[in-house]
Amino acid sequence: MDPIRNPYAPGAGQRPPELAGRDEQLTAFDVVLERVARGRPERSLVLTGLRGVGKTVLLNALRSAAVRKGWGTGKLEARPDQSLRRPLSSALHQAVRELGPVSGEPASADGITHVLGVIRSFAQREAGTDAKLRDKWSPGIDAPVVRGRADSGDVEIDLVELLTDVGGLAADVGKGVAVFIDEMQDLGADDVSALCAACHELSQNGLPVIVVGAGLPHLPAVLSASKSYSERLFSYQRIDRLSRDAADRALVAPAAEEDAEFTPEALAAMYDATRGYPYFIQAYGRSVWDLAPRTPITADDVAVAGPEAETELAVGFFGSRYERATPAERDYLRAMADAAVAASDDGVDDPVGSVATADVASVLGKKPQSLSPARDALLKKGLIYSGERGRIAFTVPHFGRYLRTQA
């Protein structure tokens, strides 16, 4: 098969040629946009799921839907070592620019200038009032700083004021604003609390601003620990692996565009190999296409390409994460993989390898307390997560299987 025409695209956040299995989320978001535009109450949205299920891809697709509706949009990726002020200021700067004045009306132009000044005030407050000029970061805004608004230094107060002003502007120009936050679980505790408070204020005032976050499965617990009302503040949607029909469509539709097809047996073999995880589907699709001699692609072609696809996953998907762990942390990860198999009824762990921390300690022959540093470091690195007290799981599907093959 011609590799130049290969339609499959494994990559971090890279949109696949066919966004299969996400019609329900896209349709529901269209309803949210319409309701907010009509002044109806609506909750912000949180997408959760493992690595490789397409959360970032879906987040970008939802943003595109908002852009098509004429909304102002901005996106940021949270990082555990970074305050929310700077990236959120840049995202809101872009969203306000996208709103633009309505029919050149001076009132809306003045409103935009005011809000841009508030964004600049919010951004520069991180450096402190006595900071030198070179330390006062500016998100490229020409509007003068609005003193006394969103610059108190208390991020919760400041964020409520900032998003209230942004929402007021959006309402004045008859549009909406959507802020998209990837890796939302990496926000600091103060920033999470501030974001929840701001969303609560926006919903009470009926302002056309929504937040769409994406993160790992424990993100709802992070939000709930910050504000008890967050369970009612957001609409939570779990993004999981694709059904068999959706997985087949993710393979068949791009192939048909290139005048190629799969046999039914090949599609069954592909699902057995990928288990419906979108990143795995793209990785296998790429390898199978490159190695298949002709169309239709058969089950034998899938078998031949399997080792190359697994090598691609081992290096680019599993290995890059494994290399981030220290020797002690790797021992902990391998113990998790062994404990998951031991705890299963059929000797095969589930895709996320959910296990009790006590079982991991038992495998290593150590007390659970002595393993806390390794566990906490892995949690911070995003390699594992804790969905409930006393249990942990891999953030990457089938990571345990990879670890056992390495052993």
Automatic annotation (TrEMBL):
The entry's keywords: Heme, Iron, Metal-binding
A molecular function GO annotation: metal ion binding
Location of the region described as Disordered in the Swiss-Prot/TrEMBL record: 1-23
InterPro entries: AAA_16 (IPR041664), Cyt_c-like_dom (IPR009056), P-loop_NTPase (IPR027417)
Pfam family, one: AAA_16
PROSITE patterns: CYTC
Domain Cytochrome c residues, every copy: 171-337
Entry's transmembrane regions: none
Protein name (Swiss-Prot/TrEMBL): Cytochrome c domain-containing protein
Organism for this UniProt entry: Nocardioides kongjuensis
